[in-house]
Amino acid sequence: MLSRTSLAVAAVTVTAVSGSGVVLTAGAPPALADDVRGVQQPVLDTLELPRAWRTSKGAGVTVAVLDSGVDPEHRDLAGSVTVGRDFTAGANPPGVPPHRLHGTYMASLIAGHGHGPGGRRGVIGVAPEAEVLSVRVILEDEEPGFVRFNTARRFENVVARGIRYAVDRGADVINMSISKELATKEERAAVRYAISRGVVLVAAAGNEGAGEERAGRAARAGFDPYSYPAAFPGVVSVGATDRRLRRATFSNGNASVLLAAPGVDIMGAGPGDAYWVGQGTSQATALVSGVAALIKAKYPDMSPPLVAQALTAGATDRPPGGYDTGTGFGVVNAARALAEARRLARHSETATGDPAQDPAAPIGAGSRGPITVVVRDRTAVQVYGTIAAAATAGALTSLVSMYVLVRRIRRAPSSHEA
Questions:
Q1: pLDDT digit string (tens) for 55-111?
Q2: For residues 14 and 116, what is the distance between their CA atoms, to the nearest angstrom?
Q3: What are phi and psi of 150, to 5 degrees?
Q4: Burial of 29 by CB count in 10 Å (0-12 exposed, 13-18 middle, 19+ buried)?
Q5: Among 259, 242, 347, residue whose Cα is nearest residue 311
Q6: Phi then psi for 195, rounded to 5 degrees?
Q7: pLDDT-derived band at 12, boundaries 50, 70, 90
Q8: Residue of 178, 205, 227 lying closest to 69 (CA atoms)
Q9: Cα separation of 290 and 202, whole Å?
Q10: Where do the DSSP E strands lie in 279-389?
């Protein structure tokens, strides 16, 4: 029913944490915390975060992390995490605590603030001054209730419920490093609900990309499956790049992808003050959510479409032609995105009038009857009416003339008659 996007990691201890093939590898905690920041440095440079932080560090923004739960006591997240509702309650047997591995990892990439003097040790997130709201909507596959969670009908719409919960509790950005093969109308309606209230939604495009494991019609056609909620209109769908900032082989390539972010060898935090290195569109999604948080902190009233426009307009390493289905409009860049947001801040993309069709209602539901013409330009109506009448008369005259001509030709004697 529901699974995280898959990750593949190489280090010391390998732990499978998802039914979709999510694999994380935990190394021993680094002897020097500077090692953590050192591994992060290529990503920090790619996103131009040091320059972006002169403008915004995410203060005042709440990012909801819809995931497996976040460890609020990790030293790199302590004081920044609010533990929200667990929508998986009842899947695990009583007394079984959540693992919270994947969720902690994602939260650290978004809002990790490091630790020690000046916060110079441990994981630094893209928006280190942002707050995290942890909303548990998935189980990791090592948890005993994983199978029950993925088969019981009552858990089918946990993502939709999680989105609405996060919106109602003040989230500015919602990170969803999760994926589903099939969508529901409840999820579509929840996405619309969030966007209508100015909340930016960011989700993983999925990790079923090109590779030897892909076969059949989809592989021959050259496209990868769509994942939800990333493929819903209005959601920022994120693909992953490798070290060369090209589409990572595991990253889905389809028309839902809006932009990309680094997704290979990404350092993050895990429960119990541990650190992890992994790869996947999950990590790329968290990085983009962090950049969205920087924008919303600086421009809190900016609408989700304009935030998405700032993200794409500020992207670097654009593909030939400006867009492709692997990396979208390019690789996210925090400094450039903030510069674009500054340019867009004076604009608005909020429509007025009655709302659009409710995706949770049948087509045509809520119709308010015929369209009422508010202003009628009578002069223009007369002019265009006269032109139309003249054109019609001309067409009729032409038809009559042709008819008469044809009749005359038929009546003329043949030159071969005796």
A1: 999 999 999 999 999 999 999 999 999 999 999 999 899 999 999 999 999 999 999
A2: 29
A3: -85, 0
A4: middle
A5: 259
A6: -65, -40
A7: very low
A8: 178
A9: 10
A10: none
Which residues, other chains included, contact 368 with Cβ-Cβ below 8 Å and sequence gap of 6+? 354
In whole angstroms, give the CA distance from residue 241 to residue 175: 18
The whole-angstrom distance between residue 362's C-alpha and the CA centroid of its chain comes to: 26
Angle of helix 281-298 relative to helix 304-313, nearest 10 degrees? 110
Separation CA 147–CA 151 (nearest Å): 6
Beta strands 121-124; 113-115: pairing state: antiparallel
Element spanning 236, H or E? strand 236-241
| Catalytic (active site) residue 71 | no
Assess contact for 209 and 248: CB atoms under 8 A: yes
- The residue ranking higher by pLDDT, 282 or 396, is 282
Q: Is 155 helix (H, G, I), strand (E, B) or coil?
A: helix
Task: Give the active site residue among 102, 113, 115, 179.
Answer: 102
Query: For this structure, is 67 an active site residue?
Result: yes
Whether 21 shows a pLDDT value over 80: the answer reads no
102 tagged catalytic: yes
Catalytic residue, candidates 3, 6, 20, 67: 67
Report the alpha-carbon distance of residue 38 to residue 35 in Å, rounded: 5
Of these residues, 18, 56, 256, 282, which one is catalytic? 282
Please state the pTM of the whole predicted model.
Answer: 0.79
376 — pLDDT class (breaks 50, 70, 90): low
